[in-house]
Design goal:
By secondary structure, this protein is mainly alpha-helical. 35% of the residues lie in helices and 3% in strands. It has a two-stranded antiparallel sheet. The longest helix has 28 residues. Bound molecules: heme C. The site of heme C has 27 residues, from helix 3 and helix 4.
Length: 219
């Protein structure tokens, strides 16, 4: 009887030790709280910058923003000749300088402002550095009267990219490029800052349509 009792208590002791160990390990390895939507991830690491470089190159941002490859003259430095401008109806629009120059490029803006430009199409110059949680004007920090980036900046496509990919591109533009001083004249545009253009169905509307649409099917 005594043996049984001794074995049982030894067994209970073992179970208790294992339980304590599990709790300690769980507390140790617990992943940090999930970041709020639109909140900047922790300081970007080198990997983020290189992934951002890959996304910028493969999405041909330079096709409009300048340069033919990362070693070429004018890489992402914005309009340097009139052929790089766009004529959209009566308006001339101009791809901006995406290098981190403080006076003429993205140096003036935070990575979150760049993120908000790519995800929501909001002009960093006119949009405060805030976490945006809604696509409805006036709600969740989305501006009541949004100033959108001029056509043909394809943010209505970039908004489908995973959030991390957008942050990686912002990290590359701010930290992985040398600043180039190149002043690009402001784009022209309609008084509503393209709002009626972008809420049009041809761009998918203000809220990007969920999968599957009428053209798609569940695999
Ligand atoms: C088809 C041409 C085109 C492509 C491709 C393009 N952009 Fe643009 N982008 C523009 C134009 C035009 C503007 C200027 C909009 C304005 O002045 O309102 C712009 C503006 C921007 C801005 C705002 C800069 C500022 O100072 O206000 C950012 C950021 C940006 N683009 C990033 C990108 C990135 C990143 C890519 C690739 C993933 C990209 N663009 C691809 C045409 C383009």
């Amino acid at each position: 009887m005594r043996n049984v009792w001794r074995n049982t208590s030894r067994f209970a002791g073992l179970v208790a030790s294992v339980l304590i160990l599990v709790v300690v390990i769980a507390a140790w390895t617990r992943s940090p709280a999930a970041p709020r939507a639109g909140a900047a991830p922790a300081a970007p690491r080198r990997g983020d910058v290189l992934r951002g470089r890959y996304s910028v190159i493969t999405h041909d941002c330079a096709g409009c923003h300048g340069g033919t490859n990362p070693a070429a003259q004018g890489w992402l430095a914005g309009v340097t000749s009139p052929e790089m401008e766009f004529k959209i109806g009566p308006f001339t629009t101009r791809p901006r300088n995406l290098t981190p120059d403080n006076g003429t490029g993205l140096g003036r803006f935070t990575e979150r402002q760049i993120f908000n430009a790519l995800r929501y199409g909001l002009r960093p110059e006119d949009t405060p550095d805030v976490v945006i949680t809604s696509r409805t004007p006036g709600q969740g920090n989305f501006p009541e009267h949004p100033h959108y980036l001029a056509v043909p900046m394809p943010w209505t496509a970039w908004r489908y990219m995973p959030e991390q990919e957008l942050w990686d591109m912002a990290a590359y533009l701010k930290r992985g490029l040398k600043p180039v001083s190149n002043k690009v004249l402001d784009s022209e545009g309609p008084p509503d800052f393209w709002a009626s253009e972008y809420t049009d169905e041809k761009y998918g509307g203000a809220q990007p349509p969920a999968f599957p649409t009428a053209n798609e099917q569940k695999p």
